[in-house]
From TrEMBL:
PANTHER family: AT-RICH INTERACTIVE DOMAIN-CONTAINING PROTEIN 2
Keywords noted in UniProt: Chromatin regulator, Nucleus, Transcription, Transcription regulation
GO cellular component: RSC-type complex
Biased composition (Basic and acidic residues): 437-452
Gene Ontology MF: a single term: DNA binding
Record keyword Transcription present: yes
Taxonomic lineage: Eukaryota, Fungi, Dikarya, Basidiomycota, Agaricomycotina
Region (Disordered): 437-473
Protein's organism: Meripilus lineatus
Record's keyword annotation contains Transcription: yes
GO biological process, one term: regulation of DNA-templated transcription
Residue ranges occupied by any RFX-type winged-helix domain in the UniProt entry: 940-1016
Record's protein name: RFX-type winged-helix domain-containing protein
Amino acid sequence: MSTVEAIRTLPTPPLSEGEKPVDYTLLRKNLETVSAKDTVHFERKMGETELSYFLPSRDSGVNDMYLHLGFRAQESTVAHSRVRLVWGILRLRHPLMSAHVEMHDYDDVRFVYPVPTSVDDILKGADANLEYRTQSKDELIDSYLNGPRTLSNSRLSYLVLSRASPYPGRSIPTPPHTPSPTDEPGAQVALATENQSEEGHNYELLICAMHFLGDGMALHTFANDFLGLLGSEKTELELEAQLSEEWKGRWGDNLNDASILPHPLEDNIPLPWTRFRRAAAAVDFQLSQQKLIGGHAFPRRKHPERRTIVPTISYPEDRTKAILKKCKANGVSISAALFAICNVAWARMSGGSREMPVLMYSALNLRPYFTVKQPAPWNSYWFLAIGYFNVILPNFLPGDKVEATFWHRARLAKEQSTKAAKNPMIVSRTHEMARERGERARGWAKEDDERANGTWVPPAKNVESEPKEPVLPPRAKVSSTALMGLSLLGNLDGIYKHANFPSIKLHTLTTGSRQRHGAMLLFGYTFAGKLWISLGYDENGFAEGVVDKFWTESIACVDEFLGQPNIPHTILATRSCALGCALTFTLTLTTSTTSMTTVFQTPTPLNRAGSTPAVPARPPYVPPRPPTDDFEKWFTEPTPNNRMLLALKSGIDSEIAWALDRICRLCPNEQFILSAIPGLADVLFEWPEWFICSGWIEITRVGTLFSLPQILERRKRHALEALFVLRNCAMNPVNAKDLAGRLRARDLILCALHRLPHDSDTNSEFLLYIIEFMQALSDELVLAPPDAPYLANPLPPLQNFSAASSNRPIIIACLGTLHLLMSNPANVAHLSAESPALDASLRYLPLSMDKPLQEAALNYLYSHLSHPPMSKAFLLHPRMASTLKVLVSILLAEQVEETVSIDITGPIYTAPADIVVTKNHELTSEELDSLVVMLEPQRCHQWMRFMFEPNSTGELTQVEFWNMYKDLFSQHQDRCPPLVASEVIKFVSVVFPQAQAMVLPGPPQKFVVRGVARRQDNFIDNRIRCLWNHSQCAVEPLSSPKELYDHVVQEHLGGDSSAIQCSWATCHRTLSRKDIRSHLLTHLPVTPRPREPKEMVTLPSAGYPQPIPDPTKRPLPPAPSAAITYQQAILDPPSNSLTALLCLRVLFRSAFASSDAAPRADEDHFGFPGIIEDTEEDVQEEIASGSDSEIEGERRGRKAFIGIRHLLERVTIRNETLMGWVAEMVDAGIMGTT
């Protein structure tokens, strides 16, 4: 009899005592039947604020919110059916949580809400967005923040309820904890463990929601409502009746429309916009933005991966009360104090310039300003209602009185926060900010999409348009860089009504969101009577050690300024955050096998200026941990009567569960050898064989409509745990070799793969363990020949699972197992060009956000292409060209580069920009007024000093001298008669002793005054010519556009005619008298800006003339700064990039195989002297020797590599050898033929 037949004849283990047959009629539910309605969808466009959150979240889920709550409750309180009912009631009350998003354009994104047709419809939606896990708090939050995105456009909200696994060392979720023998009826032993505690179990609740659905206030209010319903005294039947009643109240008729959906932020605070109000709002908003001054930021670094961590600290209730009391005594809240703590911590780190202030931002609750209220029952609170405000504080500390400075800055933060909240323009500023954020988000989203599609082109600068004259007063440009953001939630105990859910004991709250690269946000709130401070940031996005130092300094500031601790605070993180703090604290560390609490005593730090000496705290008493019964010697005795072995063979469920529980704890240890306990491996195969033969059929039949009976649930758990032990043991090479040699192991794998359906939830976990069990044995497995019976070959089901399954872990396990099997040269005969696994790997290859899945797809693709016939056949694959693009995209996405710049600026030649003109001095009005009141000869003397200056080579005729005097003072002779000519000439020598009057000989004689000259004035010639009368106007150039405008109006636009023809330069338009003046302005130049005294003009070469008549014809000068900039790799490529490069290399060699055999001989080909290459003949012979399909494949491959040449040119790799491969492919893409 074969092994398979023997498995089928195995007897079913007997029922244990206390188990009774299940009456399935008692499990049926009598749900109210509701008449079905036609499916109706309501739509609403997103507002500007909602768009600003939605568009950036499309790629990686930036700003996806989460709220974690840790609590204790009885198991019945968190039963799946009860949680589903509560979740369904709240999803009915808040329509946006059940909606999905459709994007039609960047400014047309819509909520689409499908109207629930029945109570069952609501429960199905709730069940599809509800998940139970066995993860700890840290694993739950880490998977949400750093793992694949949980939410999507079709899933805007999600609920996760988790209870930590009793086996924290396992990397894969395992079956539920098996009851120990003390669980049997009649056992009266009181256990002190958590599982048997009368207060219930510890649970972790994770509420996930898109940020464009709502804000933190909505999230916490929702959590309070959820806990109020879950912890109420209502039974499940009463909750179900309430759900039915609320559904009827909302959808009992068809009179509803899209107005039932919550309105966007902008519609909840409408303003009656007028042109003046809109202009005033724009000016006010711009002025408020100009006041934001900040010049500090944490030093960042480039890293290909984002990893967000959230170190959290909580203070005990008495310490929290003391902190709040001290804040109240200083006239501030804890929120204002946190602004000051961040400010002082940054200043003590000597971060940034002391001259520039520190700018921090926070959110502002806008719900009190809403003027539009939704009527019941559509008054959902799930909508966005947040604005933003900023706090600016100095970045320096005095040498003394540091504490007084701290409280002063806390009061400054409070004052700025109050002004922001009570500003009379807050509504208009909210509208302007929403409009600006929406425009930015649309621009960035469009650019991101174009970059992803390879169609992005930098926007061209419009150099022809005239610059607009600024409306706002000019101001110097200053930085508005923000240091960090703070989310200050206040007292959350005012939201959570703990008295409404007495059966649920809340003890932990953590909140945050998925962040972009290099983001940071500090949270501060009080919850359960404790003060909580957490810092969420991307640990790969900042310079090493900077954030740790800031966090340490912040904690020290809390202790220093808010009172020394008399009770240690608790750090809830996996990293020590108290370096340098003078206190003792308790650090909770989560390791691979157990959770321990350790007490550290930190050294007293050096005293800072103005700091208070720390008082060491007394270490708390830590009771010794009771030893477990996992590692006693007698459990692992290598004898046939081993305690665990006998328990497995006993047939008693409780004994089997106890033994499997202990072996699950032992199997990860590499010293655990299966062969050391004779018969253990054979016993472990029994329960998985029962599940394959008949168990899964019975479980599927019963579990389709009802929950499993207790006996089936236990047997299924035994099968999963036994297989889990085999899978873990196979990780040890010694055990793997032993198991691979057992025919029973191979039969188990083959039967499971060929018999169990992969699309059944009943079998998913079992199949996953089977595939991973096979993966661990792959190094020892050689497959049967391809012509062997179908059931003897595990490859077809593995390939079908990878192609057809929707279970991600199963897909990864299948591809990983196939990769290991195909890496064995003895198994390559099973490769096929039409393999379903190949199509699956190509389908999952672009999923760059899911690194494990992408890695599995890459590894299988490489093992497939490594076989030469498969690589040649792949060149004919219809997705070959797109696969090459994806492989290059992986290289580009994971490369880390730096910018290198080489300055090549040449010599620069300049000349002054302005032209200095000299002209004779003319009397000013002040000088003339002073001369008129004088008497002669003082008036003559002063006039000469004003008009002339000594000059040894200067010369004026006496007639010219006299005429100037006479023309001026003859007009004022009524006050004082002018002098005669001889007197005036004589006084020249009196005023200027070096000057003298003389007669120059010669025909004719010339009477001159030598030794003086006219005084000269220098000025910048920026005058403007009048071009009226087609550039024939004879008036002198004017000094400003205003003078030119007045001249044209007065001199050329006179007369009484109603129509006037413009004769400016080449213009001939005829306009009415009222329009001609406006038209004239189009010809006049703008008012020239004042030039700096030292402003220069750059010349094309040395000695080039300046000025020139037409500056627009001057050749272009060299650039003032020129540099060659290029990108350079700074890190070696990660594993996925190396695998992608190997795949490209294999395909490249296959595509260019014939051209590589005989390189072209031409003037650029340098061979050995004396060697004659018959290249053309060789190429023809090789081409003739290949089949038509191979020739066509090479042609397509070359064409595809030519198509990706532009992408390969952007690849940079630090390793020269690998970069040489890329360069070879680029060169072939340039010279290759198709």
